[in-house]
Amino acid sequence: MTLRVLDPTNEMKGAGGQQAARPSSLQGKTVGFISNGKEGTKGYFGHLERMLREELGVAHIVWRTKSNYSAPADAAIVDEIKRWHAVVTGVGD
Amino acid sequence: MQTKRVGLTSKTYDVDDFAAAQEFYHSNGWTDGLPVVPPTAVAVEACLEWALMPADQLIGIEPVREQPITAEKLAINAVMAGCLPVHFPVVATAWQAMMKEEFLLHGVTSSTGGCAILVIINGPIRLEIGANPSFNALANSDRATAAIGRALRLALINLLAVRPGGIDRTTLGHPGKFSYCLAEDEEDTVWQPLSVVRGIPEGVSAVTVMAAMAPRQIMNEWTTDPREILETFAAEMRANQLHYSIYGGNYAIVIPKQLREHIQGAGWSNRNIAEFLHERARVRRAEWADVGKGSIVRDRGDRIHAALESPDDLLVVAAGGPAGGFGAIISPWMGSKTKAVTAAIGACVDCEPPKG
User: Global pTM?
Assistant: First the structure.
């Protein structure tokens, strides 16, 4: 017997956001790091900063740390993002 | 084939039979790995009618990704989990509670820490749905709590894409992520129900949700002294602080009848328990060095960390089988980053569903 069943997924889109335009080069650009504050991120971002400066010519690196590693970045940090050309975030432990 | 049904707006699919439905849902990543009840329009509409909710009623909006959650979609997942219509008001209210800012649902469901969402049911609805707060209270005690707990997880998977390796970045997880729901044994305790302690009027049905790790069972059959019994609970809380997370937050403790009667018989209220554990469940930061975490003690070794920032943070639950000197502590996912939320169930549990 044929069963007609329903889709259990969310077919409504959340407000969400749009991706920013991608820079073609990081030469002379400003890159922000948003750390979740966990211990292991210090070494990771330190290494990444050296790579970005030495290999890709990034001019400025801005370090920021979330006040709660399990929550979205604080509003003040999100507000700063518009002044950066790229951001690295979402790095866990 | 996809069609639209008037009233319900979800896409529909035609499958050959029950077995085909299983493969269809599994292959789309719409299950927790176990078989599901095929969500037909009749079954979903029955849930909505019982809860007096129109299909497009907004249950809430997930605060971080701003995903709207409607009654229809929640009911589909509840049916899949095995819920009866009478269970659906509990599912809907639990989701309303989960979407409160202080619950931090996104963090709770995405963290490597891997907690589950514990649901505690209070009030007359427990009796109506046939919840069993006695034998096996934290496990497969009854149909209602099994299905309600599972419904929350299936809805997370399907409505917020909380799938392992996707939004869900959990390292280990625990079996409560299949279902983690119990009812309080209000008929067999002199203590105030948890919901009343947390501000809901007596006689009103309610759910409490808590981002919770797996239960840690304790045993002390060798005393009737409330202090000695509760020292065992406190020791387990301290162990959790050292072995998992030192930071204070909501803890739940489940006290079955045998130990409960000793504590109640000595005249202790659940407030007395909370105050006792607030004082006793504390560790010095330096103790981290005893369990291999010396590198993060630093110069703060004398700092005292309380498992409960306040006695109000303890959720005392009377539940469990009649015999055995056991109990359980259920620790928070990650300190006070998330708060337990209690919400009254809005549906009139004494009302008849509308006639066809």
Answer: 0.92
Q: Is-contact B256 B137, C-beta < 8 A?
A: yes
| For testing contact with chain B, the best of A1, A2, A9 (most B CBs within 10 A) | A9
- The residues, ordered by sequence, that sit 6+ positions from A27 with a Cβ below 8 Å of its Cβ are A56, A57, A58
Instruction: Write the ipTM.
Output: 0.92
Amino acid at B256: P
Q: Which of residues 136 through 155 in chain B touch A, CB cutoff 8 A?
A: 154
User: Cβ-count burial of B30 within 10 angstroms (0-12 exposed, 13-18 middle, 19+ buried)?
Assistant: buried
CA-CA distance, A55 to B31, in Å (whole number)?
45
Predicted confidence pLDDT, tens digits, chain B (356 residues) = 444 444 899 999 999 999 999 999 999 999 999 999 999 999 999 999 999 999 999 999 999 989 999 999 999 999 999 999 999 999 999 999 999 999 999 999 999 999 999 999 999 999 999 999 999 999 999 999 999 999 999 999 999 999 999 999 999 999 999 999 999 999 999 999 999 999 999 999 999 999 999 999 999 999 999 999 999 999 999 999 999 999 999 999 999 999 999 999 999 999 999 999 999 999 999 999 999 999 999 999 999 999 999 999 999 999 999 999 999 999 999 999 999 999 999 844 344 555 54
B244 touches chain A (CB under 8 A): no
